[in-house]
Automatic annotation (TrEMBL):
<comment type="subunit">
    <text>Homotetramer.</text>
</comment>
<keyword id="KW-0663">Pyridoxal phosphate</keyword>
<dbReference type="InterPro" id="IPR015422">
    <property type="entry name" value="PyrdxlP-dep_Trfase_small"/>
</dbReference>
<feature type="domain" description="Aromatic amino acid beta-eliminating lyase/threonine aldolase">
    <location>
        <begin position="3"/>
        <end position="286"/>
    </location>
</feature>
<comment type="similarity">
    <text>Belongs to the threonine aldolase family.</text>
</comment>
<dbReference type="InterPro" id="IPR015424">
    <property type="entry name" value="PyrdxlP-dep_Trfase"/>
</dbReference>
<dbReference type="InterPro" id="IPR001597">
    <property type="entry name" value="ArAA_b-elim_lyase/Thr_aldolase"/>
</dbReference>
<dbReference type="InterPro" id="IPR015421">
    <property type="entry name" value="PyrdxlP-dep_Trfase_major"/>
</dbReference>
<dbReference type="Pfam" id="PF01212">
    <property type="entry name" value="Beta_elim_lyase"/>
</dbReference>
<protein>
    <submittedName>
        <fullName>L-allo-threonine aldolase</fullName>
    </submittedName>
</protein>
<dbReference type="InterPro" id="IPR023603">
    <property type="entry name" value="Low_specificity_L-TA-like"/>
</dbReference>
């Protein structure tokens, strides 16, 4: 099967497994796991931020950031397609007592003006707006790459009004590969930012959350409270270090493969693409024009050996990654084409 369900579906390569087996380890909780420390320093330097903390998941990075940056009764601003809003089990509300203001978007992008309008004026009756989060790249709305200038305008509007600015960088490195803009340029001036190791980088586990030393210290306390503090985490961190050495440069191939897939199906009747389609390693399109559900389209592709993800009633997401070769992309393109044409012919 060619698995385009998500870039989380990769398996650790033999080289990565070997690096994990050889990892130098210590006790992470007491700050003495050398591999974890090395990984955190490396990612913090890459993002141009002061310090970093290793987390079991990106979800915990978002949650710990929210818990550090907000008080109970606050409101945070995100996009309506965001991971924080849709698929983190309302962690911000459940653990932080924080409500989420989800800005309506088409492809996960909003503007500084929309943020300015959404920030609440201080009032006894209103929640305090305290954080704005940008997802670079957008996940559920198709891997759209945020424009750096817009990100900075949003950061500035937020900070000028007393909010903190956060980057959910689950796929920040795919944006870097797409634009050539260094991660540190994207993260500059943001109060917190993180990258996932278990997506395009191909690690089995982990993410690194960065910010100022004071922020990371506070995030560490939440990591303990949430049960995310580890012991010999160097085994996992070694996978991250290996990935930064061996898998970072090849993220451009994943982006190119998504663009290849896009070119192969862009002209098909019944498929709907946003102008931003295929910007990074995710291809997102609507099958509404075929008069079928996304679930029916995904099931038909699966029968032909290609796994894609149905999102909502009409959208399909296909994500490229380390374990999908260019040849497999050609094969997947043929399956997607044949499937769409077969449904179109039924009308
Ligand atoms: C944009 C975004 N944020 C956060 C996450 C959560 O990351 P993790 O699966 O490591 O918890 C994901 C995972 O799919 C994501 O796509």
């Amino acid at each position: 099967m060619i698995d385009l369900f998500s870039d989380t579906q990769t398996r650790p390569t033999p080289g990565m497994r070997e690096a994990m087996a050889r990892a130098e380890v210590g006790d992470e909780q007491s700050g003495s796991d050398p591999s974890t420390n090395a990984l955190c320093e490396r990612v913090a330097a890459m993002l141009g931020l002061e310090a970093g903390v290793f987390m079991p998941s990106g979800t915990m990075c978002n949650l710990a950031s929210i818990l550090v940056h907000t008080r109970r009764g606050d409101e945070i601003i995100v996009d309506d397609q965001s991971h924080i809003y849709n698929t983190e089990a309302a962690g911000a509300a459940a653990l932080g007592g924080v409500s989420v203001r989800a800005l309506p978007t088409r492809v996960g992008l909003f503007t500084a003006e929309a943020v300015a309008a959404a920030i609440r004026a201080p009032q006894r009756t209103a929640p305090r707006s305290s954080l704005v989060s940008i997802e670079q790249t957008t996940s559920f709305s198709g891997g759209t790459v945020w424009d750096l200038a817009e990100m900075r305008r949003i950061r500035d509007v937020a900070q000028a009004r007393g909010l903190v600015a956060h980057i959910d960088g689950a796929r920040l490195l795919n944006a870097v590969a797409a634009t050539g803009i260094p991660a540190a340029d994207y993260a500059r001036g943001f109060d917190s930012a993180w990258i996932d190791l278990s997506k395009g980088l191909g690690c089995p586990v982990g993410a690194v959350l960065c910010g100022s030393s004071a922020f990371v210290e506070a995030a560490w306390q939440w990591k303990y409270r949430l049960g995310g503090a580890m012991r010999q985490s160097g085994v996992l961190a070694a996978a991250g270090l290996y990935a930064l050495d061996h898998h970072l440069d090849r993220l451009a191939q994943d982006n190119a493969n998504a663009a290849r897939l896009h070119r192969a199906v862009a002209d098909l009747p019944g498929l709907g693409f946003d102008p931003t389609a295929g910007q990074s390693n995710i291809l997102y399109f609507s099958v509404e024009g075929l008069g079928i559900t996304a679930a029916a389209f995904a099931a038909a592709c699966l029968e032909e050996g290609v796994r894609v993800r149905a999102l909502g009633t009409h959208h399909i997401r296909a994500t490229t990654h380390l374990d999908v070769s260019e040849t497999e992309i050609e094969q997947a393109s043929a399956v997607l084409r044949a499937t769409a044409l077969a449904f179109a012919a039924r009308d």
